[in-house]
Structures are given as C-alpha cells and as structure tokens.
Amino acid sequence: MSVIAISWWELALASVLVGALAACTYAARLAVAQELVIAAVRTVVQLALVGFLLETLFSLGGLHWVALMGAAMLVIAGREVTARQKRRFSRGWTYGIGTTSMFLSSFSVTVLALTVLIGPNPWYTPQYAIPLLGMMLGNTMTGVAVALDRLTDTAWQQREMIEARLMLGQPWSVAIADVRRDAMRAGMIPTINAMAAAGVVSLPGMMTGQILAGTAPALAVKYQILVMFLITVGTGFGTFAAVAAAGRRLFDRRERLRLDRLTEARNS
Question: Any stretches that span the bilayer, and where are they (predicted)?
C-alpha cells in the first residue's frame, strides 16, 4: 500500500477549520482565540523547520550530526521543564536537574533500544535514532516537569509539617517522603494512563502513523508496544532521578529545610 499524498490545499482547508474554531471562541469570549492562533502558527513553522532539518540530517547520516541534533533537543527540553515550574531552584539548579535526569534516562534507553532491540545498521541511523529519542525526551520532559513542580509546590505548602518532622528527629528523607511519593506519582500518571488506554480508548500516535503509511497492523502493534515500554522506562527513571535530586536540594548538609533556594516564577 502506497502512502496517500496530502496536498497544500488540503492543509489549507485544515487551517481554515482551526481559524473557524478560533473565531467561535473569540465570539464566545472564551479568551483562548489568540493562544489557539499562535499555537497553530508555531505548529506550522516548527514542524516545517523540523522537516527541513530532518531531510538534511537523513542525507548526511553522520553520528556527530545525530548527536548534535540530540543535544539541541535536550537543551530545548530542559528549558521547557524550567519554564513550567511555579517555584524554581535558584542559580539554574532546576535546569541542571531537569536536563541531567532527562539525559541519563532518555539517551541511555534510546541507545539501548537502537543497539540491542531494534538494531539498525549503523545503530545511529537518523531515521530511527531521532524519532525514538524525540519520543523519549518528549514524554520524559512532561514527567520531570510535572514531578518537579509538584515537589517544590507541595514542599512549600507543607513546610511547617516538614519542619515539625525534622524537629522530632526524623531524617530529611523521611520528613519529605510523602511529598516525594506524591511528586513521583504525579509525574508517572500520564504515562500510566496512556498505557492503560492504549488500543481501548485510543490508538497511539506512532501506531496510527505507521498504519496510515501502509505498515501491516501486526508490525505496527509490535513497534508501538516496544515504544510504550521504552517511554515508560525512560519517563520513570528520569522522573525518579529528578525527584531524588530535587528533594535532596531542598535540604542542606545539616538537614535543614532550605526553601530559600526556591524562587517563584514571575509569570505565575
């Protein structure tokens, strides 16, 4: 089965539908029309640039170009994690924790999948490496951002209870255990829900794309199961590492709660 081409006028028709939705929300005074239009424009521009970059990258195919693309994706993901925080660690610690945890989890899981499970030749083939790394980073970014935001905000709200536990002689890890557990759960819920609903409530994006491109459904299902397991592992380890590092950062060497290391975002 060949792939059905999509013409420019069909994309234009889809954009007209988005414009109609924006007009309806504007008429109803829902205050989302401007954000909707901006998001649509960003989608077109960003995906067009990514398409151009990927075509160039696929033609080059060198490991250093793939590594450079991966590094750029990691830097942008770290910025997004930092931007989503209501309360951030000062001196760039939020960015450092976010990027380090995503690097350790997403890159290691991607390399493992490419070298052991999928096995393209060479293992860094851009057609496999970049989409897989993108899915790993995108989902891990969401988990890390949600977990860090929940951790710092809950610690701020429950600071009196945490300090009371410290005064009773509990170590910092016990005093903040409930907060860390809640943050870890919050970061993993989207991934767990996606796994639980896959194939029942919705068809995952990668599987849908492969089927539309003509891949046999049985093969598309195998790839989707593999990718979802990899995403879960990457998100889980990345979220765990971020929560562990951020939780320790909330205390000094004398195990005192140091909320002065947090700064509230100006746009919150």
Answer: 97-118, 130-151, 191-213, 225-246
